[in-house]
Design goal:
Blueprint: H1 11-31, E1 51-56, H2 71-80, E2 85-87, E3 93-95, E4 98-104, E5 109-114, H3 128-139, H4 157-161, E6 172-174, E7 179-183, H5 191-195, H6 205-211, E8 228-231, E9 239-244, E10 258-263, H7 267-275, E11 281-283, H8 287-291, E12 298-299, E13 305-311, H9 322-330, H10 334-342, E14 347-348, H11 367-370, H12 381-395, E15 400-407, H13 410-423, E16 429-436, H14 438-446, E17 452-458, H15 465-468, H16 485-496, H17 502-518, E18 523-527, E19 532-534, E20 538-539, E21 542-543, E22 550-551, E23 556-557
Parallel strand pairs: 1-10, 15-16, 15-17
Antiparallel strand pairs: 2-3, 4-5, 5-7, 6-7, 8-9, 9-10, 11-19, 12-19, 13-17, 13-18, 14-18, 20-23, 21-22
Helix pairs in contact: 1-7, 9-12, 16-17
Length: about 550
């Protein structure tokens, strides 16, 4: 695989950089070794020092709820902010700022009684108006939020986002300081789960007015109402701290005094830090997973996170041809990719929607099995060559030289190198790999500034729609140019016509997935495993495989 230094593998330089990173990391974490004592020091099960040292493999992109798009940003927001609900260890929404919820009008009207006496870290009270401001800000066209479409089930949200109605017409209003009313356009069975996602949390308007465009770009430009507050983040730094928020309404349930987070794109570095007891967790890749199967700290996770290959039809006209898209898919041996390259427990996908995203309400069959289109995710190099030849003839193209854009993490680069090799077995195909930092990658993908790219997607809640609406017409995440009126109609009916008819809704979603796969609208690769070492004395980590993964509100370090 080509290296970011211009195509030559500077192995010695890489070793020096890795060693330097590890040394710097040790210094950072060593400096965090002393912490204030937890309120639970006197309790026999709690360690004296309640500090969690954590590693991430990508940098933090933003702390602005309206502008976050990636899992890590939402993870930080989940732990520093508070909304109407939080998910418990079973993924069930439980009241947080909402003390009472009343649902009327056949599931289209919600009234929330809010918790009183809750404060932002700047001293302002948290009120219903903060929710109104947050939701209006996210759907406003000038904010350009990629996630605004998640609000489209709220009355007038879609019209507001397209500039057809004023933000004041959004179906949310404050009835005094502690009563919030929300009007939907249709019944939404998973609405409470959405409300437990940071995108639907409140935002302090005074802070946004004070910091302007800088809001959420560094820890000093943020305020919090959650269990922790973000500190020591410059906006570009590869380390930050989540410090216990002493003004949090439920601070008695919070045991950790701080969480030190350090970015290490190289799992060898983070693994060495864990072994040296400088960190409490590390992701594992490849051989590390095999070597640690019997490690008492080993935790295998298979979140509903996927990796796919998108072919940008707007940048490369040949990708508008079905036979070329299908040829690219058939040329990739997903089994070899997961077993021989990644070696981390990741599994080949059966379609765009991964496993654990729901079951048929009548038969109980899993969605990924019922919607399986074998040809869309199979490996058949001979058939791929035949289809590519046919596609070349149909388009008048004789060769395809394109760039594959991917992240600079170890696993991403390994996967891209494998994909490059497989695709170059096709006649006339040459792939140049470009690996860049994750924050830059998601920016280029959002701007549709790529020819081919490896995209990742992590669901917010366990329902197939949370994947399928990515490729709906008008979706800000549909950056590759896929367009199908049949697909759009199926999704529109499932959400707007069959909201209270689960079997019909399910049938439409299955058909939509099959349509996407029969069109080869995207090329599914694998469901991403996140196996890790997590020190045994780290207790009560609430892990959500189908949404924002880590909630540390009740986590503690045991003796």
């Amino acid at each position: 695989m080509e290296d970011i230094f211009g195509g030559i593998k500077f192995m010695n330089l890489k070793k020096i950089i890795a060693a330097s990173t590890a040394f710097a990391a040790i210094l950072i974490l060593a400096g965090c070794g002393k912490s204030t004592q937890s309120n639970n020091t006197g309790n026999g099960k709690y360690a004296k020092t309640q500090t969690l040292n954590w590693t991430e493999n990508t940098a933090l992109a933003t702390a602005d709820i309206s502008k976050a798009t990636d899992t890590l940003s939402f993870d930080v927001l989940m732990n520093t902010q508070e909304g109407l609900y939080r998910l418990d260890k079973n993924g069930t929404p439980k009241g947080a700022l909402a003390t009472k919820t009343t649902i009327t009008d056949n599931g289209k009207h919600y009234t929330f009684d809010l918790r009183k006496g809750v404060k932002w870290t700047n001293g302002d009270p948290v009120t219903a108006k903060d929710f109104v401001y947050s939701w209006q800000r996210t759907v406003a066209p000038k904010t350009a939020s990629q996630d605004a479409f998640y609000f489209f089930q709220v009355k007038n949200a879609e019209a507001i986002n397209s500039g057809k109605k004023p933000v004041s017409s959004l179906g949310i209003k404050a009835d005094g300081n502690y009563k919030l009313e929300v009007t939907l356009t249709k019944p939404v069975t998973y609405f409470k789960k959405l409300l437990a996602w940071p995108l639907f949390f409140p935002i302090n308007q005074n802070a946004v007015n004070k910091f302007g465009e800088k809001y959420g770009t560094a820890s000093k430009y943020t305020v919090s109402d959650g269990p922790f507050k973000l500190t020591k983040w410059s906006g570009t730094s590869k380390s930050w701290t989540l410090a216990k928020n002493d003004s949090y309404w439920d601070k008695k349930a919070v045991h950790l005094n701080k969480i030190n987070e350090l970015v290490s794109e190289d799992t060898t570095t983070s693994y060495n830090l864990f072994t040296a007891k400088k960190t409490d967790a590390t992701l594992l890749s490849g051989q590390q997973v095999k070597n640690n199967q019997h490690n008492p700290n080993f935790v295998k996770r298979l979140p509903t996170a996927t990796t796919r290959l998108d072919l940008n039809q707007n940048k490369v006209k040949a990708f508008k041809n079905f036979n070329i898209r299908r040829a690219f898919s058939l040329a990739i041996n997903r089994s070899q990719l997961t077993k021989n390259v990644l070696q981390d427990g990741s599994v080949p996908l059966k379609g765009f929607v991964p496993a654990k995203m729901g079951n048929n309400p009548k038969t109980g069959e899993a969605f990924d099995k019922e919607a399986y289109v074998k040809d869309a995710v199979s490996y058949n190099l001979n058939q791929a060559k035949t289809l590519l030849k046919k596609g070349y003839k149909q388009t008048g193209v004789k060769q395809l030289h394109v760039t594959l854009l991917t992240s600079d993490t170890d696993s991403s680069k390994d996967a891209a190198e494998f994909i490059q090799a497989d695709l170059q077995k096709l006649p006339g195909v040459k792939i140049q790999v470009q690996s860049i930092p994750f924050v830059q990658l998601i920016s280029k993908q959002a701007d549709k500034n790529y020819q081919t790219t490896v995209q990742t997607w992590q669901s917010v809640f366990a329902d197939p729609i949370n994947f399928l609406d990515v490729f709906e017409k008008g979706s800000s995440y549909n950056t590759s140019g896929y367009n199908s009126s049949k697909y759009d109609t199926l999704l529109d009916q499932s959400e707007n016509k069959f909201g209270n008819q689960p079997e019909k809704r399910w049938s439409n979603l299955v058909e939509a997935e099959k349509t996407l796969m029969n069109d080869q609208g995207t090329i599914p690769l694998y469901q991403v495993a996140k196996s890790q070492l997590l020190r045994k004395n780290v207790k009560n980590v609430v892990y959500n495989p189908a949404g924002v993964p880590y909630d540390w509100k009740t986590t503690y370090i045991a003796k």
